Amino acid sequence: MEDHTAVIIDVVKSRSYDDRLDVQFLLKDSVAYLNIVFKKAIEKEIVFSSGDSLQGLFSIPSSAYLYVRFLQMLLYPVEVKAGIGYGSIEYFQKEWNSNELDGKAYHFAKEGLELARTKNQQDIVYISKSKNDKYLNLIFEAAYQCKKRQSKKMKLVALALELLTPLSTDTMDFSDSEKALDQYLTHAKKTQLSTKTIANINIQ
Question: How confident is the model at residue 144 (pLDDT cuts 50, 70, 90)?
């Protein structure tokens, strides 16, 4: 049985935001953009599963991680945590969306998300039940601790650099993403979150 990479994402303390509608729009626009950029690696598009939770399926773990990493940058100051699981899928059906699938990959991703929620050491947890998990998660923990020390300006500069010179692989394609990115930037300027988003940085 072929293995796949599932990812489950959750907005941290989503009910605490006064401008929840703005957060929802920013989340939808960010996901729409990234679903285009990562279309080569996505097997099942990232979709809303319940409330402010998202899930999807990727062909390889590295693309799932890069997707979550980019999403976190786009959503700042909104914080998200994620679980990434690598394993089998029961009854993989081409016409089904991510919410209709099940298997070890999703079970591992859910387990990873629960660990990310309860631990303050990292925001992404990877589980495949292999000996390499602990090493990857140590790297994710170090990356999270570095991000926590970044100022607001540093986070925005990091996103601007990512949009201009993205950390990309051959499974990413930016050729059809301009319209979706414009939609994200346009909405970000209109929201109450705009003073803290990339909308105020000129990337032309």
Answer: very high
